[in-house]
Each structure stands twice: as structure tokens, then as C-alpha cells.
Amino acid sequence: MSLNSPTASLCEAGAPALIANSDSLREAFGKALSALGDEFPKLVVLDADIAGGTGVHHFRKSHPDRMIQFGIAEQNMMAAAGGMAAVGLIPVVTTFAVFCLRAIEQARLSLCYARRNAKIVASHPGLDVGPDGGSAQALEDLAAFRAIPGMTVISPADPTEMVLATRAMLEYDGPVYMRTGRSPCARLFGEDHKFEIGKGQIIRDGDDVTIVACGIEVARALAAAESLAEEGISARVVNMATIKPIDAALLSRCAVETGALVTAEDHNIHGGLGGAVAEALAATTPCPVEFVGVKDTFGASGEPEELAHHFGISAPFIADAARRAIRRKRK
Amino acid sequence: MNQKFQTVSAQPSPAMLAEKLAEAARFIRCHSVASIFHAGSGHPGGALSSADLFACLYGAEMNVWPNAIHDPSRDRFVLSKGHAAPALYATGAHFGFCDAKAALALRKLNSPFQGHPHVLDLPWVETSTGSLGQGMSVAVGMAIGLRLQKIPARVYTMLGDGELQEGEAWEAAMSAAHHKLDNLCAVIDYNKLQSDNCNDAIMRLEPLADKWRAFGWSVAEIDGHNIPEILDHLGRAGATREKPSVLIAHTIKGKGVPYMENIPTWHGSVKLTPAQTEEALTALGASADEIKGFMHVS
Fold first, then answer.
1. Residue B193 forms beta bridges with which residues?
2. B142 vs A87: CB contact, 8 Å cut-off?
3. A191 is catalytic
4. What is the DSSP letter of B164?
5. What is the rounded distance in angstroms from the CA atom of residue A47 to the CA atom of residue A71?
């Protein structure tokens, strides 16, 4: 029966190097979690056989006793996190964003309805997944998890912010859904960067339009603002790392001060950051809003930057949206 | 056990204990029928089939105390078949976790006794359930979490048979055996009927015991209405090491109410008439005074 069945130690000895880039959000998350392990003794990490992909292989190495393997069975893992939280642990469920969608009903009932102090950290969101293609690119997760009462939804923009957000997530008492990212990403923030759940930040000031972005789109929003500046348009950029609860006060202020907004996200244009921003502004300070995101379609294979261009979420598309928003404001 | 309030007085004789638990089961059945009557909807069949199991768990097997519902060392119970909530509430009422009269306000607005258990409304129900298969996973998480923290408490979960058609139940079963959760005991209320028809007609479960054995569990098939047998096997499960245990309890859906027994119609959410309710309570052995008390809530 055990003929040709490799033992665990053999698998380890012959393991190829993990395909993981040190500048990706997932790696920053995994290292942060590992570094926080001693400070948060109740922290346990749940894995569905993709620790190498989600970044939590770092935690497995530093805290093997608190790494719980669930195999390729995300529904059971998600609900089991509810049970662990019920007995006083702080479980962090880790898998790809699409598989979080697979277990969303478990997150709804056993984490949110029961109001457990449990966290879901989703790697591989959006077109940023790249070559794995459309089936693997979750473009619906922000919308879906945002719709669950009591769920906090976070999407940090760079490795520095990811480290801060990981700590904030563990310090917060309640269910959280946080996106990381697969591909190498730019480092935008210095050591003095601050992160607070529920607070957006103006990271570049401007008067003509505000670009509100989250996750990897923040870097593209900054690039768009730079190119707009060359043509004399002053674009403000807001890093909206918390999609829920959305920072309505900051959005309202930007609407008053700049008169038009653009949202940018690596997500369907429906229901994610754009939806959250539009809902907040419609209730307080209506103004023209243009939405940059994937236009209600599925992704495809390709490199992340190629895909961003193909599906219209790269910097030039954000700049175009900003021009449109400004034109609408002047009508 | 310890100094905390105990639901069953220390060391009664086996005969006395069985008698007490039979009385508890009778109350659970009566109260379940009455609360479903007042609600105007609810699932009587599975509440009646599981009453003896509830009585044994809360009345003898589990270390749970109404005056210490947050004690970390308590045993945990997860009602994976959440639609049997009326039986859980009736059990709670009988053993002092909630008020019996209050628990008749089943499925009413502003009542904590929702159609399916909710832990924020009633902390002693341990978790919120109602989505089949999921409670089993929560129980697995609790068992892992307790063991990790070196808390010697046990975890019990009650499953319906129909919910074993959920893939998640088998994900949970696989993980419990893999992690050698000998602090976990699943009890299956195997009444053979589900919402629309018998299991066999909807989606065959047999050979059920073989499936659990193949998944690495310690398996016992028992008569789910025989109190000494239930107690005996709960005890054996507690002594089993390195494996989770499952009791496949053969039961009769609608047990105790002849017009309901083994008829799938009484699984689903039904509206009981006053006459049906009185007939059921009479069949369950309720006295005239008891019937009056159950039927008329001020």
C-alpha cells in the first residue's frame, strides 16, 4: 500500500524553492504574522494546503504547534475557525480569495452571525493573480464579504502597510476579511506610515479630483496622478485600505474640496470599493464618481500588468476616468 | 465532578438515573410540541426523535452547569441539526438554562428563542447553527482549540441524518480523524427521514457505519430511545483514545406521537392545530393540568 508513497520528510528534502517574491503582500503578511506570533499567544493559523502560496509558511516555521492543517477543504476550515474562536483562540483562516468565496456561507454563519474574533486573510485576489487565469482571479470578494453584517474588510496597499494592518487586525476584536496579493508590488510607504481600521488617508494632495483606491491600485492611482500633473490637473489620491467600514467623513470632505471622484480597484466595478464610495457619497455629498475596475466580466491568463491594461485598470485608465469625472463636474 | 451546580444529583442509582432522564425526555417532547404549536411553525419530527439523546447528554453525560455557562472547563454542545432547536430549548428549560415559559415564545420577534439557535441571543447554546453540516465543523474547531489550550473538556455535536448529505460533514469527519480528536463525540439522530421523503429516496446514506469507520472514527450503532444504552455508549466514547467517536442512534421520527411517527410531513415546518397539539401532549403522557399550562400562555 505504501509503495511509491513519499514520506513527509522526503517531500521536504526534495522540495523546490517556493515561488514567492519577497516584495509581495502575501510574503509581507506571512512574515508579519510570524513576527507577531509570540506577542499573540492565542493566535492560530489555519491552512488548506497552500501555506507556500499564502505566505504563512513563515508562521509554520516559527510556530509549528499553532499551524492547523485542514487539507483542501475550505468550508470545514472556515467554520472550524468559528469553533476555535468560541473557545478563546484567535484563528486566522488563510487561503486564496476565490476559495474564501467558496466558504462564504461558513464565514457568514459561524464567524459573523456568531460574532467571532476570527480573521480571514485572502491571497491571490483580482487580476494580480496573473497566469493562473480567470478561474483563480477573485473579482467579487470585496463585494461579497462587504455585504455580510459585522464583517470588516481591509485591502492594504503595500508591504509596509500590510505589516501594520496585520497587527491592527489581530488587535481588533471581531471578524475581519483582509486581502493580500500574489505579485511583486511597489513599496509606497516609509517607516512612519500609520494604519487604522476605518480610516482612509490622503497620500497625495490635489484640488481638481480625488482618486480613491485600495490594494495594488493605490500605486497605479499615484502613477495616474503623476501623469495628470504633467497636463496641469491636480489629483488628490486617497488610500482607502478599509473598504468596510468606509471612511465616509473623508470621502465627504474630498467631494466638497475636489468636486469629483474616481474609484480604482482590482475588482469588479460592482459592489466593491466603488460601490462603497458611491453609497457613502449618495447619502451625504453627491458628486460625479467614475469607476475603474473590471467591467463585470471574468479575468484571463496573462501577466498582472498586461491584464491591468487589457481589462482597463492600469494607470492610464485611471487618468482617463479622472478627466471624465472633471468634465462631468464642469457641466 | 466539582462544586458547581449539577444538573443531576451525585451518583444516583442507574435505575433512578434512567427514570430521571426518561422524565426529562418526556418533558422535552411535550415542551417542543407546545412551543411549535405557539410558534405556528417549526419542525416537530426531529425534535421528538432526538429527545432521549438530549436528556442523556444534558442530564448525565456532559459537564455543563446553568450557573457557569462561561466556565472554560465546561463541555461544549453544538446542535448541528439546528432545526431541532425546540428540543434544545426544551432541554435547556428542563435543566435550568432558561425559563420554561419564556422558551414557549419560539420563533417570535424579540424572543431569544429563534427558529434556529443563536449564541448571541442564548449564550448557553454555544454557537449559532441552522446551515446543515456546519455545526460539525465548528465542533471540530472547538475540539482542536480546547486540546491546544490543554483544557480537558469534551465536545459533543448532534447531527441529523439528512445533513450527512452535505460535503462539509465529511470534510469535518476527515479532519477530526486526522487530528485524532478523541475529545469529540458526534451523535447522529438517525430517524431515516428528511424534509421531503425518506433518506433512501432522496440520497442514500447506507452503509453509514462503514462510511464512518472508513473515515477513521470509532463507531457504535445504538437504539436512540434506550436510555441505558445511550449512556453506556456515551461513556465508552469518552474512554476512546486517539479517535473521535460517533454514535449512530437509530430513532423514530415523531417518537411518542402516533400520528407523527415515521411520516416525513412532520419533519418540515408545520402549523399544529390546538386539537393536534392536545392529542400529541396526551399521547406523550402530559396530565390535564400540564396540557393546560402548555396550551395557554399569558
1. B198
2. yes
3. no
4. G
5. 7
Which of A302, A312, A323 minimizes the C-alpha distance to A136? A302
Residue with cell 451625504: A284
Correct CATH for B15-295 of 3.40.50.970, 3.50.50.60, 3.40.50.620, 3.90.280.10 = 3.40.50.970
Are A126 and A26 a contacting pair, CB within 8 Å?
A: no
Of B143, B151, B175, the CB nearest to A70: B175
Contacts of B175 in chain A (CB under 8 A): 70-71, 73, 76, 80
For chain B, what are the domain ranges? 15-295
Dist CA B50 CA B58 (whole Å): 12
Confidence check: pLDDT of A10 > 60: no
- pTM for this predicted structure: 0.95
Q: Where are the domains of chain A?
A: 21-179, 201-330
Find the DSSP H helices in chain B: 14-39, 44-56, 85-94, 134-148, 167-178, 199-202, 208-214, 227-239, 274-283, 288-295
Give the mean pLDDT of chain A: 94
What is the structure's pLDDT at A261? 98
| Amino acid identity for residue A284 in this structure | T
pLDDT at B231 exceeding the cut of 50: yes
Q: Smallest CA–CA separation between A104 and chain B, in Å? A: 12
Q: Which residues of chain A neighbour B118 with C-beta distances below 8 Å?
A: 113-114
pLDDT tens-digit map of A91-129 = 999 999 999 999 999 999 999 999 999 999 999 999 999
Residue B237 has pLDDT above 60, yes or no: yes
What percent helix, strand, coil does chain A show, rounded to 5? 45, 20, 35
Q: Does B120 touch chain A (CB under 8 A)?
A: yes
C-alpha cell at A286: 453627491
Average pLDDT of the residues in A273-278? 98
Options 3.40.50.920, 3.30.390.30, 2.160.10.10, 3.10.450.50; CATH of A201-330 = 3.40.50.920
What separation in angstroms does the CA of B263 have from each of B44, B189, B273, B288, B292?
A: 11, 16, 17, 27, 27
CB contact under 8 A, B143 and A109: no
Contact (CB<8Å) A44/B120: no
Specify whether the backbone of A55 is left (phi greater than 0), alpha (psi in -120 to 50) or beta: left
CATH architecture, domain A21-179: 3-Layer(aba) Sandwich (3.40)
Distance from C-alpha of A85 to C-alpha of B6, rounded to nearest angstrom: 27
Average pLDDT of span B258-265 = 88
CA dihedral B136, A87, B87, B37 (to 10 degrees): -100
Nearest CA in chain A to B142: A83
ipTM of this predicted complex? 0.95
CB pair distance less than 8 Å for A80 and B144? yes
Q: What pLDDT does A331 receive?
A: 60
Q: How many CB atoms lie within 10 A of CB A5?
A: 7
Q: B121 vs chain A: nearest CA distance in angstroms?
A: 10
Best residue in A47, A77, A105, A109 for a mutation probing chain B (most B CBs within 10 Å) = A109
Report, as an integer, the average pLDDT of B138-165.
98
**How is residue B226 written as a grid cell?**
434506550
C-alpha cell, A58: 513563515
Helix/strand/coil percent split, chain B, to 5: 45, 10, 45
Query: Residues A12, A27, A74, A290: which is the catalytic one?
Result: A74
Could you report the per-residue pLDDT of A27-49, keeping only the tens digit for each? Answer: 999 999 999 999 999 999 999 99
